[in-house]
Amino acid sequence: MRNKIIAWLRRFRDVLPIAALLAFMYCVFGSLEVVLTSAKDFSFTFNQALLPLSLVCVAVTLVFSAVMACFRGVGLRIVTGLFTGVALCSYLQNLVLNLDLGMLEGEEIDWTAYGNHGMINLLVWVALLIAILIAAILLKKHWRTVSMCVCGLLLIMQVSALAISAITYGASIGEDLTKRYALDGEDQYTVSTEGNIIMFVVDYCANTYYDETVAAYP
User: Fold this and answer.
1) Is the backbone of residue 122 left (phi > 0), alpha (psi -120 to 50) or beta?
2) H or E stretch including 94?
3) What are phi and psi of 180, to 5 degrees?
4) What span, in angstroms and rounded, lies between the C-alpha atoms of 120 and 83?
5) Whole-prediction pTM
6) Which residues have a Cβ under 8 Å from the Cβ of 88 and sit 6 or more positions away?
7) Are 133 and 80 in contact (CB under 8 A)?
8) What distance in Å separates the CA atoms of residue 62 and residue 58, rounded to the nearest whole number?
9) Closest to 29 (Cα-Cα) out of 66, 59, 56
10) Alpha-carbon separation of residue 38 from 10, 41, 44, 133, 166 (angstroms)
């Protein structure tokens, strides 16, 4: 029994980088990247989101590692191959495969125009997953070293990229919430004797109608 526990702990240690990479990518990096690029649109700061997301990442890492450590031999290589493949595919998806859909302005998006791109993405994912699974089975004992090194390197790259982004957007994420501008209702119905500006907020209006209106009523 003691030997089985020691063997399980060794497998748990070996798969930690793989589990940590996948958990960090989805629990921390993806979420905080949105916060960093749209800091002023959220009611919380980067620092406030970092701790809870990190705790979730740690919990997911431990769960993934515990599950993978339950497998042995070929089964372990297949499972770690799947985890590594999903992590690599996700990294590639975020890096080069995602399309720029432009500004979301309320206009209808013709999703049929992106059908071919979705099929290409699927083929890339399937081909890469199959290739990694084959490598995991053929490399045998060497797969442990390869998977640990690849996932560890990607994890370092992700952490470094997030740190650089945090420094770049430091001014936005370090902003005190109490200093944010907000409408408090004071003087909202007060009108000046001159120089008043009437603003119409049009949430969904095609440029065609706007141009016609401006041309008719300059």
Assistant:
1) alpha
2) none
3) -70, 145
4) 21
5) 0.69
6) 128, 132, 150, 154
7) no
8) 6
9) 56
10) 41, 6, 11, 38, 12
Structure tokens at 18: 């793989």
- Residue type at 120 in one-letter notation: I
How much is the average pLDDT of 74-83? 93
Task: Compute the distance between CA of residue 32 and CA of residue 22 in angstroms, rounded to an integer.
Answer: 15
User: By percentage, how much of the chain surpasses pLDDT 70?
Assistant: 83
**93 neighbors 28 (Cβ within 8 angstroms):** no
Which residues does 30 contact at the CB level (< 8 Å), separation at least 6?
94
User: Closest Cα to residue 84, out of 96, 72, 92, 73?
Assistant: 92
Q: Tokens 């060794």 appear where?
A: 10
SS3 state at 121: helix
- Count of C-beta atoms within a 10 Å radius of residue 9: 11
Segment 49-55 mean pLDDT: 90
| SS3 call for 136 | helix
Residue count of the chain, please give it.
218
